[in-house]
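Priority: medium. Attachment 1 of 2:
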């Protein structure tokens, strides 16, 4: 269940503000994996990676479950979609502003 949009936006942007967490999201976009597989390329201790996973979990960006002795994770892209929708408004705004600027510059050459 996704929380209200403002809460999701705050948590998603807070979670992806960190480069390690963005890298974790990118790895999970490739497919589900265990926590140890996920942590392997990072120069961090396993407990440090788990802390990052908790932040992503609170932002509802990942799901996890036990598979025997392993804890497996997968990306939940829905909250990223909420953030993308919010950003789309500003893409339109800046697209219009840049078009107006280009027109103005062409007229004043």
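Attachment 2 of 2:
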């Amino acid at each position: 269940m996704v929380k209200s949009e403002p809460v999701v936006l705050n948590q998603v942007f807070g979670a992806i503000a960190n480069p390690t967490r963005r890298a974790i999201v990118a790895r999970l976009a490739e497919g589900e994996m265990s926590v140890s597989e996920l942590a392997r390329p990072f120069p961090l201790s396993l407990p440090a990676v788990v802390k990052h996973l908790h932040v992503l979990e609170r932002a509802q960006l990942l799901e996890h479950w036990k598979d025997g002795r392993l804890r497996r994770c997968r990306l939940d892209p829905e909250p990223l979609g909420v953030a993308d929708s919010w950003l789309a408004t500003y893409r339109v705004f800046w697209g219009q502003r840049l078009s107006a600027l280009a027109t103005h510059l062409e007229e004043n050459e």
